[in-house]
Amino acid sequence: MNDLATLRRQTPRLNLGDLVMVAVSGQIAHPVGAANPYRIGNDGIPRVLPATGGIVLNRRIGDRCVGLAGDHIEPGVALHNNQREVVGARNGPNRALITYACVGNRVRVISGPCTGQWGLVTGKHGGVDHVIADFPSRVLRRLNIGDRMQIYSCGLGLELTDYPDISVFNCAPELLTRWGIVESNGRLEVPVTHRIPARIMGSGLGKNTVWRGDYDIQLFDSEVRRRFGLGRLRFGDMIAIVDADTRFGPSFRQGYMTYGVIVHGDSTVSGHGPGVTPLLCGPAEKLRAIYKINANLANIFGLRQAVPPKSYATLSGRSLIKSEKISSRKIDLVRGY
User: Fold this and answer.
1) CA angle 28, 71, 325 (to 5 degrees)
2) Per-position pLDDT tens, the chain of length 337
3) CATH ID of 167-300, from 2.40.70.10, 3.90.660.20, 2.102.30.10, 3.20.20.300
């Protein structure tokens, strides 16, 4: 990848002089359990798996996100603001946290044994309303549930000055300058690892905003997974969703493209899957997806080298294969083979 100075020169003009930086904070969120520990999968199988919240110690940006023994796994640290202000709704501070935080913002630990350590905002997870942040493994091992962190939010109001019909959301200016986006013949070429059809997008549809989370890629069709290489998805992959208009909430619209980042892991639950936080949206004629194997936050920000992409079966897919083998053996036994 080009050096940072070159990337900054190539980046389309941004309205950097108009932006405001605001500090917002949260604490490491504890996982929350439902009354029933089981999640019923799309295959009808109940499973008990780790899910959202907490500190994920062995999965970071750049690691695979498909086929893990987990459900909606948030790599690194999940942040939530549990405080209350004297005005506004009870969850007002957390709503502000998830709105203000942008992918690529810097985050600093401000309490606990890792005070002073720096990390990076890597995503926003709707529904549970968590902000997700990455830290080096040595820091993750020393963090405590409840440790407070401060995010230096900058990105709300960000615009591509020469492309008014392209919307930017959830995106720090530093991400746009590092991503490797270049202008060519009146349109922007955007590095991605995958092109995904909007018809397989699921949970998150129906919202009237994409500023507070993500929406999910369904992986339940094996032929679609194979055709689009979805078993190779990694946390932090930059992806393109074809025929997706997310300007006023995610929806299907031909001729539009949405670009985003994979923020959480796969799920066996119907309508769910790896989550995408949208970052750019506009007419397809102005946004061209360019395949780059290293179009991943881990490489873009020099956090670590993303693992080489390798195709993995989903957890429910492996269960289906296993049950088919068992059924086949039973038939063979009945036939006397």
Assistant:
1) 155
2) 557 777 777 789 999 999 999 999 999 999 999 999 999 999 999 999 999 999 999 999 999 999 999 999 999 999 999 998 888 898 999 999 999 999 999 999 999 999 999 999 999 999 999 999 999 999 999 999 999 999 999 999 999 999 999 999 999 999 999 999 999 999 999 999 999 999 999 999 999 999 999 999 999 999 999 999 999 999 999 999 999 999 999 999 999 999 999 999 999 999 999 999 999 999 999 999 999 999 999 999 999 999 999 999 999 888 765 554 544 454 444 455 5
3) 2.102.30.10
Neighbours of 146 (CB within 10 A): 12
Distance of CA 330 to the CA centre of its chain: 42
Report CA Rg, the chain.
20
First and final C-alpha spacing in the chain: 57
Residues of the chain with CATH 2.102.30.10: 167-300
DSSP for 236-251 reads: TBEEEEEEEE-BTB-E
Helical residues (DSSP H) of the chain, grouped into ranges: 4-10, 92-100, 137-140, 173-178, 222-228, 297-300, 315-335
Query: Does the pTM exceed 0.70?
Result: yes
Sequence-distant (≥ 6) Cβ neighbours of residue 333 within 8 angstroms: none
Closest CA to 65 of 172, 219, 224: 219
Architecture of domain 18-153: Beta Barrel (2.40)
Residues forming CATH 2.40.10.170 domain(s) in the chain: 18-153
**Under 8 Å between Cβ of 38 and 46:** yes
Rounded CA-CA distance 223/270 in Å is 17
